[in-house]
UniProtKB/TrEMBL annotation:
InterPro entries: Amino_oxidase, FAD/NAD-bd_sf. Residues 13-272 form the Amine oxidase domain. Belongs to the carotenoid/retinoid oxidoreductase family. CrtN subfamily. This is FAD-dependent oxidoreductase. It holds the Pfam family Amino_oxidase. GO terms for molecular function: oxidoreductase activity.
């Protein structure tokens, strides 16, 4: 059996990124994925000629884009326009995103318009790290005066992060995400699955091996050092370093005696964020001007991704509608809310329907930057030499896919910088709170 330098559990964006960084540095690398294809939550599905992501996806100007560019991915697609609408009191109204829309919108009083204009001018220079320890609500209530400008900030920051927990969410990271968003996001041609295909190809070119349809059931370790990955079908993959890119709960489950490691804290502190997503491909848009809509008094968001990306073979328009879920979710009520949003924005959409995908409750992130976090997860699991975590929940301040790639990069940097250190065992039991 070959001894790998790096074995990666999970073939989503974090796993593929880790594998490319490892193989680029000359490490013998393998990726083990339980599904029959790679991509995890970044995969796309093709239905009746239309490409659907698993819910609307936008690539921000952050760590993921930087890594993808470093790997030489082509990332075809475009920046969508941000001219849009807001839903307030069940009606559509102009969303203030620039000078013209700010003057035109009936949503704000003159005082509110002046305050929002000042924010638009200075937001790009905001030192967001100052607010890393402050909750989002504290930041908004302490810094924004006008009640409607506050509502707009809540809506923009919710959409930038998918999180509906202003009392828990750390303000700094999500403000940074909004800063990244204001530079313009990228919608990808043929969906995020196209980027996954490119990542896979890049990894293969560097010599990464892949095993798919193989569920990992245990990470064997002995005397505080990782030994091998064990799969359900009996496959054993011995490795010097193992990177887990599963959820924190599964990572905990896979590692014997995880309760005596940092994995226990990371699992306990994690707060999962979910969304309900309705994606539709429409032959034509009944209201072609209404392509981008923020719910202000409802936690919904709508975007016609086809306005910036090639997402269908026959010109159908792929529209994503998202309902950000808090603690309480109800698949039928959420679907109703999503369909009502489509009724309002694109009346008669049902008559133009080519294809549809409904995801009643999909995990957007297994954890995020919140004020109850005891520590940022990873990259190393300190009690077991050679064991690492990556994935969007292993964030050190980044959000969503940026956290997936940044945590993967951190894991490989840690492996490379600890190369040659003696593989002596060490256990560092911690008090579990
Ligand atoms: C609706 C929605 C909208 C989103 N929108 C955006 C957006 O606009 N912008 C943005 O930046 N991000 C967005 N994201 C987040 C982004 O998709 C994720 O952050 C990213 O895809 C996570 O990658 P990952 O590798 O960390 O996790 P995953 O993609 O979940 O990969 C983990 C992989 O591990 C595999 N696995 C699990 N257990 C095992 C096991 N026991 N053995 C082997 N394999 C295993 C899984 O099958 C999976 O393939 C969105 C996510 C969702 C769901």
């Amino acid at each position: 059996m070959q001894l790998y330098d790096v074995a990666v559990v999970g073939g989503g964006v974090a796993g593929l990124t880790a594998a490319i960084y490892a193989a680029k540095a000359g490490k013998q690398t393998i990726v083990i994925e339980k599904q029959d294809r790679l991509g995890g939550r970044a995969m796309s599905n093709k239905k009746n000629g239309a490409y659907f992501n698993l819910g609307g996806h936008a690539l921000y100007h952050g760590d993921a884009l930087a890594s993808f560019r470093e790997f030489g991915l082509s990332l075809q697609g475009n920046k969508p326009s941000i001219d849009g609408y807001a839903i307030w009191n069940g009606k559509l109204t102009v969303l203030p995103t620039g000078v013209k829309s700010l003057v035109a919108t009936p949503l704000l009083s003159w005082k509110g318009k002046v305050e929002l204009a000042a924010w638009l001018a200075k937001f790009g220079k905001l030192d967001t790290h100052r607010y890393d320890q402050v909750s989002l609500r504290e930041w908004i209530e302490g810094n924004v005066q006008d009640p409607m400008v506050r509502n707009i900030f809540y809506a923009l920051l919710r959409t930038a992060s998918y999180v509906v927990a202003p009392d828990l969410q750390a303000a700094g990271p999500v403000l940074q995400q909004l800063k990244n968003a204001l530079q313009g996001v990228l919608y990808l041609d043929r969906g995020w699955g196209a980027a996954v295909d490119e990542l896979r190809k890049k990894a293969s070119d560097y010599g990464v091996r892949f095993i798919t349809k193989s569920k990992v059931i245990s990470i064997d370790h002995h005397n505080g050092i990782v030994q091998q990955v064990l799969c359900e079908d009996g496959t054993k993959v011995p490795a010097k370093n193992i990177i887990l890119t599963t959820s924190p709960a599964i990572a905990h489950q896979l590692v014997p005696h995880a309760e005596a490691t940092a994995l226990h804290t990371w699992k306990k502190q994690a707060i999962e964020i979910t969304a309900a997503c309705l994606d539709v491909a429409l032959r034509r848009l009944p209201k072609p001007k209404q392509q981008f809509v923020y719910g202000i008094d409802q936690t919904v968001f709508l975007s016609n991704q086809s306005r910036a990306a090639y997402l269908s073979e026959d010109g159908a328009q792929v529209v994503s509608v998202i309902k950000y879920q808090g603690k309480e979710t109800d698949p039928e009520k959420d679907l109703q809310a999503l369909e009502q949003t489509l009724d309002l924005v694109q009346p008669g959409w049902q008559d133009e329907l080519v294809a549809k995908q409904y995801l009643p409750k999909i995990t957007v992130c297994y954890d995020f930057m919140h004020t109850k976090r005891q520590e940022n997860p990873g990259p190393a699991v300190p009690e077991i030499k050679g064991l690492y975590v990556a994935g969007e929940w292993a964030s050190h301040g980044e959000l969503l896919v940026d956290a997936a790639t940044a945590s993967a990069k951190r894991a490989i940097q840690h492996i490379l910088s600890h190369e040659g250190t003696e593989r002596t065992p060490y256990y560092e039991h911690r008090d579990i709170v």
